[in-house]
Amino acid sequence: MNFLRKIIRKIRFRPIGIIKRTLQRASYVVVAFLGKLILTCLRALRLIEPLAAYEKNKVKKILVLRPDRIGDVILATPVLEALRNHFPHAHIALLVSDQNRDLVAANPFVNEIITIGHKGIWGIFRNNKLLKKLKKERFDLALVLYPVLWCNLLVFLSSIPYRLGHDFHGNGFLLTTRVPYTCEKESRHEVDVNLQVLEAIGIKPKRKRLHVSVSQEAEKHIASFLYENNISPQDLVVVIHPGAYEQHIRWMSDGFAKVAWRLIDEHDAKVVILGGPGEEGLVDKVCGLAGEKTIPATGLMLSETISLIKRAGLFLGNSTGPMHIAAALEVPVVAIFGNIHPLDSFKKWGPYGGKHIIVHKDVGCRQCQPSDCSHFRCMKAITADEVFAACQAQIKRMQG
Fold it and tell me: Which of 9, 337, 366, 399 has CB 3.0 to 4.6 Å from 360, enough for a Cys bridge?
């Protein structure tokens, strides 16, 4: 099934995309209707508990779910601080994917980190031990920040009485409090989208601050990496991450190479080209185009990636997890964005904070649909000169 899904994702032909999305929307309506009908029948037969009204004084244990990608987890961390302020004595557990544990390992607002390996509907039953654990812990409140059906089903099967989350694509029938998901019509930053769930139970955050955990062991490893590459504390370190999960958010490798070369030549910067799993070839390509003075960084653990970015004076990259790591660590960012679709644009996924620069071109695609795009005109319209000018502006700001 995953193989077939990957093949379908690679087909970039608008008529097929329209058909696919129409069928998806129809399936959401059917699932929502059947789900509500089944739950109504089960409640009428008293086979499941009736809906419970939310009462703050009954909340002693809270489960927050964000088991998706790096950036999604980081942009959910303001929720954890807001929860801790509102429930100072509650036990707060955060459920994330196995790969993302290092992001939140030392989060000061969380009592417990729970990880999940297998995802999806079938993954719930493959994670039988996890389901038993969640039932045994007897959580009072669940916040589902990853708005997919299987997460809602997981908290429902875990017998958590209060279940909050977005009603996205009609999958909110398993929740007790449903928050309308309006991002397909208007672009709101993901930080605000997450916090919107808390507003449904009367919680307003005192501040919106991202948090990423830093490992002391990783700090030592990166200190050795910097020493081996003749990088001193006085050097301007620029971390460039040219990769991205999706092709439509990936700027050209030769563009990154040109910017890297000019940063070395004009600012005497130490430029590190960062690559995640599977991006070794891309890093080699950019380093080859930019010249031998660039420093490749691949094969790092997530905790080591965090420590490397923490040392940077400037981060340059696409809309990716490392970009959000940099923003959380308050490293100045130059982020490259193309499409204007409400679910993908810089308005929703841009680096959070006031001191970052977004390089973006609107080329007039009023019916922007990234999954159908085969020309990537918006990304190709961004020039190396424009990106370098943004980097210079950040460097000037740092030095001024």
Answer: 337
Range in 140-149, 231-240, 274-283, 365-374 with the lowest mean pLDDT: 365-374
Residues 81, 136: one domain?
A: yes
**Angle at alpha carbon of residue 63, lines to 61 and 64, rounded to 5°:** 145
- Gap between the Cα atoms of 121 and 25, Å rounded: 19
Residue 97 shares a structural domain with residue 245:
no
Q: Residue for token digits 């006085």?
A: 234
Q: Is the dihedral of CA 179, 185, 188, 191 positive or negative?
A: positive
Percent of the chain, pLDDT > 70?
90
Give the number of other CB atoms < 10 A from CB of residue 386. 16
Q: DSSP H helical segments within 158-229, as ranges?
A: 190-199, 216-228
Which domain, by its residues, includes 340? 216-399
Spatial distance between the Cα atoms of 250 and 259, rounded to a whole number of angstroms: 15
Question: Within 13 Å, how many C-alpha atoms sit on residue 164's CB side?
Answer: 24
* Domain count of the fold of the chain: 2
> For 1-15, 115-129, 358-372, which range has the lowest pLDDT when averaged over its residues?
1-15
Residue 180 identity (one-letter amino acid)? P
103 and 249 together in one domain: no
What token pair was written down for 270?
């130490």
Q: CA-to-CA distance for 177 and 180, rounded, in angstroms? A: 10
Could you tell me the pTM of the whole model?
0.91
Residue 371 has pLDDT above 80, yes or no: no
Distance (Å, whole) CA 339 – CA 380: 11
Amino acid 270: pLDDT: 98
* Cα 228 to chain centroid, rounded: 32
